[in-house]
Amino acid sequence: MCFFADASSENSAHLMLQTIVAAIAGGVLLIVLARKLQLPAIVLLLGGGFLLGPALWGDAAIVQPDSLGEGMRVIVSLAIGLILFEGGLTLDLSGYRSAPSMIKRLLTLGVAITWMGIAFFVWLIFDLPFTQAVLAGSLVIVTGPTVIAPLLKRIKIEERLNSILHWEGVLIDPIGVFLAILCFEAFAGDGGQAAFINLLVRVLVGLPLGIGGGLILSQIVKRRWIDEEMLNVFSLASAVLIFGLAEAVLPETGLLSVTVAGFVFGLSGTAQLKQVRQFKGEITDLLIGTLFILLAARLEPGQFMEDFGLKGVGMVAIVILVIRPLSVFCCAWGGDLKTREKLFLSWVAPRGIVAASLASLVAIRLTELGTIEHPRFVETFAYSVIIATIVLQGSTAGLLARLLRLKRLEPTGWMIVGAHTFARGVAKFMNQHAKLKVVMVDTNPRRIDQAKKDGLIALARDARDIKLTELPILQGIGNVLALTDNEDLNLRICRNWAEVFGAQHVFRYDPSAPVMEKDFQADEHTMGRIVWARLARPNLLSGELSRAEAKLIDVDQASAGQVSPATPLVVFAGDELVLDPGEKAVELLKQEGAKGLFLRREADYLQRSLRRELFITSKATTLQELFEEMMEPLVKLNPQLPREETIQQLVDRELAFPTALGHGVATPHAYGRKLDVRLCAIARIPKGLDYGARDGEPVRLVFLLLSPPGDPEGHLATLGEIARLMINPHIREKVLAASNADEFMDLLGITPPGE
Question: Mind telling me the catalytic residues?
Answer without folding.
Answer: 669
